[in-house]
Amino acid sequence: MERTPLVEMTGIEIVDDAQRTAKPSDLFWPWFAANVSVFGMSYGSWVLGFGISFLQATVVTVIGVVVSFFLCGLIAIAGKRGSAPTMVLSRAAFGVHGQKVPGIVSWLTSIGWETFLAITAVLATATVFEALGWASGTGVRVIAALVVAGVIVTASVLGYHMIMRLQSILTWLTGAITVLYVVLVIPHIDFAAVMALPHGSPQQMIGALVMVMTGFGLGWINIAADWSRYQRRSASDSSIVVWNTIGGSAAPVILVTVGLLLAGSDPALMDAVAVDPVGALATLLPVWALIPFWITALLALVSGAVLGIYSSGLTLLSLGIRIPRPVAAGIDGLILTIGTIWVVFFAQDFLGPFQSFLITLGVPLAAWAGILIADILTRRADYHEPSLFDARGVYGAFDWTSLVTMAVASVLGWGLVINQFAAEAAWNNWQGYLLGPLGGKDGTWAYANLGVLLALVLSFLVTLLLRRRTIRRQEAAAAELAVAGLDNAPGPLDGGRG
């Protein structure tokens, strides 16, 4: 049996059939490990921050988490059908060169998420160390930043096989200690106070729903096929969707619900989470439990960041930068390190600008997701792999229907979201220009973030209607090439034109 290499050298090229040994159930491990984090409890504070009741918040949490990871599962189907990373497979919908537009959005989103998780890990470390009386101040943060970034970059550079092994171990460790944390904080829950929270409006519920969807599944959707490209060609599409959805949503549904109970019981905790999402949760624990809590929180956050760095490196390669995959992961890791140091040591507030950044990129990312999901569901055959790397192939250089759809959906979407952090991120105050008929930027619909849902649904429907014939032509042309025996894909680093 061929030994698995320590460092994965496979970049964006097609994965060889001999390496495609994964089963759909294997998808459970990376998705669960990346999301079984006490950080998920912080969302309880943010959801209740929309002014809704516990019951409303619970409904929003279950729907938002499960639906968003179900959408990830649909995109994961493409990984099995095409044996390539998400942003390469997206070329079938946007064209080999046209794909660079959503590719840039995807890369920026991944970098943002990775950096946010690393920052949260550093702040949590500083808070726990201070609570233990060990050390505090700049020194702790410097060491924490270097260690966190070092672990993330190392695992990402080693690649897929090492990450899958790491995630299968972290799943059990972080899962067990997270359960312990939940048991320990139960005495802090005041059920009477939680159930007394007043109901909010439908608009407030929609706003919270969009935040949950973008914070969970939609935050990962641009990398969903990266982890299914090693699946056997015979793997069931429905099994891939199911395991992706279960792995991603099982832990967050429980953790956010616990977070709702804690935040609803203690308004002071809700405010503290805004400054230090994970560290604030540590203040509820007895001293003896701080070390296990810190280790678990750190590993879970690092686990999520590792997935992001790995995939952002693949996205970088898909943009046409011709370097080995480990180097691409290292470059993104360096950017993460610089971003973490800058925010932790120099920025006065990071949560506000981050959430503003997330919603801004969330709109075009939702538009891209709608297009790709419709494209995947419309196709009847596997991708013509050579054409994913050749602008003269069946997918062409640019698919203007997809590009225009994404642009229009994004413009409309940005007009229906507002910058909820106007003071911290004034550079985003241009949004919300279509809210006038709905009461303006101060109206009841202003905080519903309708633009994200509009971009997702509109782009999905337009693609279903306008690109069906194009997809059938692509599949017919691919079948003709297969009959002619023209099915050998050029490598992207040695002759490929992608």
UniProtKB/TrEMBL annotation:
Domain of life: Bacteria
Keywords for this protein: Membrane, Transmembrane, Transmembrane helix, Transport
Predominant cellular place of this UniProt entry's protein: membrane
Membrane topology designation: Multi-pass membrane protein
Subcellular locations according to the entry: Membrane
Transmembrane segments: 28-48, 54-77, 142-162, 169-186, 206-228, 240-265, 285-310, 331-351, 357-377, 397-418, 445-466
Family classification: Belongs to the purine-cytosine permease (2.A.39) family.
Protein name per Swiss-Prot or TrEMBL: Cytosine permease
Source organism of this protein record: Brevibacterium pityocampae
